[in-house]
Amino acid sequence: MSDLQNIQFSQSSIDTYDTCRLKFKKIYIDNIKWSNDNQNFGSEFHLLAQRYYIGINEELEQGREDYILFNNLKKFLKREENMYPEYNIRYKDTQMSLIAKVDLIRIEKEKITVYDWKTSKSKFDKSKIEKSYQTKIYLHNIAEKFDVSPNNISLIYYNPRFDNYIKIDYNATDHKYNKIELKDKIVSIINEKKFNQKIGKHCSFCQFNSICNQEFISVDCL
Ligand code: SF4
After folding, report:
1. How remote is the CA of residue 86 from the centroid of ligand 1, in Å?
2. Which residue, 87, 116, 91, is CA-closest to 8?
3. Can you give the pTM of this predicted structure?
4. pLDDT tens for residues 162-194?
5. Cα separation of 192 and 171, whole Å?
C-alpha cells in the first residue's frame, strides 16, 4: 500500500475521494489502474489541441464534429510562441504535494493565463467551476510557481462545442484562503482511516461497478 503522505494530489484524485473513498483507495493507494487505451472524444480533442499549440496542423475531414470544434478553438485562441500545451505545475511543502496538469499555459510579461478545454455537452455552471478543486489547484500552483502577482493570473475554461468561455481571475486574498482550504482537505485525506464505499448514481461511471454492484461497466470508465 502506498504511503498517503507521498501522494501527489490532483483535482482528479480529490474529486474521486469526495465521490467515493473506496474508489479513491483502489486507484490512488492500491494502484489499480487500466491502461489508457480507450480514447474518447474529449481525449482526442485534447490531443488535437496539444498538437496545434506545438505547431502541428492536423488535416481533418470537413463537416465532422472534430473539424467544427477544432476550428472553433483555432478561432478562439490562435497559436503564439508564448504558449505551452500540456504543462504540469507542481507544488510541495511539508503538508501537501499538488499537481496541476493544465491544457495550455500562456506566459506573458508579468501575466499568466491558463486554459482548460471542456468538450462536455452541458453549458458551464460558473459558480460550480469557481468552487471546483480544479480551479483552486490550478490557480494556487501557478501563484506559487511563477513570480507574478496573483492579480495577474487568470484561468479560462473554453468549450468549443458552444464556442463559449468563462474567465476566473485570481488575487492575493483568494490565494491565502485557497491554500488554507487545500491544506485542510489534504490533511483530512491523509488522516482518513476508513475508505468506505459510497453507492450512488456515480457507480454507473466507475470501473469497479462490477465488483461493488455486479453491474455492467462502460469502457468509457477505463
Ligand atoms: S462502484 Fe460505486 S461504490 Fe464501488 S468503488 Fe465505484 S463509486 Fe465506489
Report:
1. 29
2. 91
3. 0.91
4. 999 999 999 999 999 999 999 999 999 999 999
5. 32
Calculate how far, in angstroms, residue 136's C-alpha sits from the geometric centre of ligand 1: 25
**Residues 215, 222: Cα–Cα separation, whole Å:** 15
Strands 83-92 and 97-108: antiparallel
Closest protein CA for atom 1 of ligand 1: 209
Which protein residues touch ligand 1 with a CB less than 6 Å away?
20, 22-23, 197-199, 202-203, 206, 208-209, 212-213
CA–CA separation, 19 vs 17, rounded Å? 5
Sheet with 153-159, edge to edge strand ranges: 83-92, 97-108, 111-117, 153-159, 164-169
Convert the pLDDT of each residue in 42-86 to its tens digit: 999 999 999 999 999 888 989 899 999 999 999 999 999 999 999
Instruction: Supply 134's cell numbers.
Output: 480544479
Distance CA 175, CA 94 (A): 18
Q: From ligand 1's centre to the CA of 135, what distance in Å?
A: 25
101-107, long-range: CB < 8 A, 24+ apart: 101/10, 102/138, 103/46, 103/49, 103/50, 104/49, 104/53, 104/77, 105/142, 106/80, 106/82, 107/82, 107/146
